[in-house]
Amino acid sequence: MALNADKFIEAFMANLIAKNPGENEFHQAVRVVVGSVAPYIVENPWLIEEKIMERMTEPERVIMFRVPWIDDRGDIQINRGFRVQMNSAIGPYKGGLRFHPSVNLSIMKFLAFEQTFKNSLTTLPMGGAKGGSDFNPRGKSNNEVMRFCQSFMTELQKHIGQDTDVPAGDIGVGGREIGYLFGQYKRLRNEFTGTLTGKGLAWGGSLLRPEATGFGVCYFAEEMLASKGLGFKDSVVAVSGAGNVAQYAARKAMDLGAKVVTLSDSNGFIYDPDGLDDEKWKFVMFLKNARRGRISEYAEKYPTASYYPGKRPWGIKCDIALPCATQNEIEIDDAKALIEGGCRCVCEGANMPTTPDAIAAIQGAGLLYSPGKASNAGGVATSGLEMTQNSIRQKWTREEVDSHLHTIMHDIHSACVQYGTDENGNTDYVKGANIAGFIKVAGAMMDQGLV
Ligand code: NDP
């Protein structure tokens, strides 16, 4: 008897949860994908026989390792390192490294799983991986960060390489950390290759890589908005986070004529009803990247702004919301506040920032909504462009990289529309992104046999 999609989802998820107990973020990410692809799978029952979802949710390899290092007081510190190599069907593993105290196996697996679909959507040949550590760079000296990165890479270098696995940055891993990691990789392997992306411009980095995720989010949002005759011009934008993705999403939104009124960090958010301007944006760049300070200092410097400790920005009235901080930062009450505040579009810069019930509420109220695996793919796509430049030993201009980025975001949008649009012309970007990503990876896995 033919299995229906709902039964397939429930049976599949029950097995996954039993096999991976306590990995809540991983369960959440898988459930969203299975929810989208189940109708396609039950229509193609050979995919059930091939156990395609079981294979896609079992990492090809999980590496967990001890990272010992010595702090500035001379005390020994022990952290845990991870690399989850999820799927290499369409290319070498590719995905960022996250240094944050919340890092655990569940978060690594959810991110590596999402990365597989995201990388598939970019149109570039990259498999999916993610890694990191529960190390917290906040409050550490440069020397402590360097010693940690050197110890972390001493183990990680055994498992990566330019044709095997190419890590990049993520939360807590920016230009400084990539520099220390690359230096140690080069020293241990005695080779200068493009094994890490997000490198400095003088040593193999690509122009526009720092900007790419945030810019790409806005390019994607522009496409979504244009489908409803809307745009950034004269709109009010709420951004969360104040790190790499938030900084450049805010910059591009401003350049497209929007007023960006919020930024946040893990301690609270600032609301500036006058919006960011060039000077304020440059201050944020200095504050977060050079001084490594807190976003509350924005409100101390600019009296037009208020600081709300312990709160998220979603209660502020806005037309467009760009969550760019971390997972599960828009919960159901936040979604209701956005809807009541007149928001028209939620475009994710972070990975999985919206909880499933919040997504349902946002989509149910008819807002445009894009999952991070589609709208934040500009970062990894430009990392892919950095790999290409490293391989051909050439450097493209900023305009060339930006043009590639624009084309890729446009193509991802088209793929979402192709697979996610119903007979009334409404696009479900979650469904579109998941099905488009799935079909390509599943096809490649079938071609390569049972490996
Ligand atoms: P950064 O470390 O540069 O910035 C992260 C920002 O999010 C900081 O403002 C940080 O505040 C805040 N944040 C972190 N954890 C929490 C939390 N638990 N609650 C509230 N705020 C928090 O990271 P990125 O900007 O690189 O990454 C942001 C998001 O974008 C992540 O989900 C990442 O996976 C995703 N992403 C990043 C890409 C990239 O190219 N960098 C590519 C694709 C996705 P604080 O300073 O207090 O920690």
Widest sheet: strand ordering? 9-8-7-6-10-11-12
Multimeric state of these chains? single chain
Structural class: alpha/beta
Instruction: Kindly provide the name of the CATH class of the domain at 210-370.
Output: Alpha Beta
What is the CATH homologous superfamily assignment of the domain at 210-370? NAD(P)-binding Rossmann-like Domain
Query: What is the correct CATH architecture of the domain at 210-370?
Result: 3-Layer(aba) Sandwich
Q: What compounds sit in this structure? A: NADPH dihydro-nicotinamide-adenine-dinucleotide phosphate
State the order of secondary-structure elements, H for helix, E for strand: HHHHEEEHEHEHHEHEEHHEEHEHEHHHH
Mean pLDDT: 97
Shape: globular
Any idea of the CATH topology of the domain at 210-370?
Rossmann fold
Q: Approximately how much beta-strand content do the residues carry?
A: 15-25%
Fold and architecture overview:
The structure is a single chain. With 451 residues, this protein is α/β, with parallel strands linked by helices. Among the domains are: 61-193, Leucine Dehydrogenase, chain A, domain 1 (Rossmann fold); 210-370, NAD(P)-binding Rossmann-like Domain (Rossmann fold, 3-Layer(aba) Sandwich), CATH 3.40.50.720. The protein contains 17 helices and 12 strands. The protein has helices at 5-19, 24-43, 46-49, 52-56, 105-121, 142-156, 175-189, 209-226, 244-255, 278-290, 296-301, 332-340, 356-364, 372-375, 378-392, 398-420, 429-447; strands spanning 61-70, 76-87, 93-99, 127-133, 165-168, 236-239, 259-265, 268-271, 306-309, 320-322, 345-347, 368-370. The strands form 2 sheets. The protein has a 7-stranded mixed β-sheet with strand order 9-8-7-6-10-11-12, with helices on both faces. A 5-stranded mixed β-sheet has the order 1-2-4-3-5. The longest helix has 23 residues, at 398-420. The relative contact order is 0.12. The mean pLDDT is 97. Residues 169-172, 174, 213, 241-246, 265-267, 324-326, 329, 349-351, 376, 379 line the site of NADPH dihydro-nicotinamide-adenine-dinucleotide phosphate.
